[in-house]
Write a structure and sequence with these properties.
By secondary structure, this protein is mostly helical. The protein has helices at 2-14, 22-49, 66-73, 78-105, 112-120, 127-141, 148-171, 177-184, 189-217, 221-226, 233-243, 248-279. The longest helix has 32 residues, at 248-279.
Length: 280
């Protein structure tokens, strides 16, 4: 009798959560398929239109590389592109470092929930409001000249909460008995971090840096207020799209190049997270 009861309980545990409505599983599958289609099909179609002779018509044929040739001959976009890459790299590294430092100590601090809410408030502040507030603080109150440095600060304020939440996923479940054991064995603080903490937190640190890079590389609203006379890639792209209708085919090619920068980073991160880390 006990065996039958245990068997029934085990069967109930392995059943799907929504088994009382059989249509839910199929509906969820179709919902996922539609969501993936809406995300990736426009991106694929953008890349296809970038090599179309008539991209504004929505017809891919006939194919041509004239848009990329025009983009290569117009070198005005290269400087903003390089600036965006450098700024995004700085923001990514700063976000990863700050998120690691704060994320390691926040779960052990008093009133950690309250402090976490303070740190993630920028997630809920509209970009236009945050950009205007930082502009007033830097320019009107401090009297500083805006430029690349102010863009870095504004992007960091936006990217840091994302990196912190990623790091907290691992630090909130970190077994601190490992650190106590390392201290008992005479390991220094640096050795403990290098040999114990960093290998465990490495996926989160890489993820925080990657999110910081991507958020900074595509940021527009905060950059408009904080750029001064500087120009980044999203600002240049936005200016071209809003002022010169004849440049739209070139914008398609430029947007495709941006995808070629960001998508490999995402693919590399997920490969690192799910392949290399799992095998180790």
């Amino acid at each position: 009798m006990n065996i039958q009861i245990n068997d029934r309980l085990s069967v109930r545990r392995v059943q799907p959560q929504w088994s009382y409505w059989p249509m839910w599983s199929r509906l969820a599958q179709w919902g996922g398929i539609v969501s993936i289609f809406l995300i990736y099909f426009p991106l694929a179609w953008l890349a296809l239109m970038s090599i179309s002779q008539q991209p504004l018509s929505g017809i891919p044929l006939p194919f041509t590389v004239e848009n990329y040739a025009s983009l290569a001959s117009d070198t005005r976009w290269m400087a903003p592109f390089g600036v965006s890459v450098v700024i995004a790299a700085i923001v990514g590294m700063a976000s990863a470092a700050a998120a690691t430092l704060v994320g390691r100590n926040l779960p052990l601090a008093k009133n950690s929930t309250r402090k976490l809410l303070i740190c993630v408030i920028p997630l809920f502040v509209p970009g236009m409001s945050m950009g205007a507030a930082l502009f007033i603080f830097f320019r009107a109150i401090l009297g500083l000249k805006l430029g690349y440095w102010s863009i870095v600060v504004g992007h960091f304020v936006w990217a840091f909460p994302f990196g912190l939440l990623i790091v907290l996923v691992l630090t909130s479940r970190f077994d601190h008995r490992l650190i106590e054991a390392a201290n008992d064995l005479g390991a220094s603080k640096w050795q403990t971090f290098r040999d114990i903490e960093f290998p465990i937190l490495r996926p989160a640190i890489v993820g925080a840096g990657l999110f910081g890079f991507l958020l900074s590389f595509t940021e527009v609203l905060r950059t408009i207020f904080l750029r001064g006379t500087s120009t980044t890639m999203p600002i240049y792209n936005w200016t071209m799209a809003s002022s010169q209708q004849s440049q739209v085919p070139i914008i398609f090619a430029l947007a495709t190049i941006v995808l070629l920068v960001t998508l490999p980073l995402l693919a590399g991160f997920f490969w690192f997270l799910y392949v290399k880390v799992d095998r180790s």
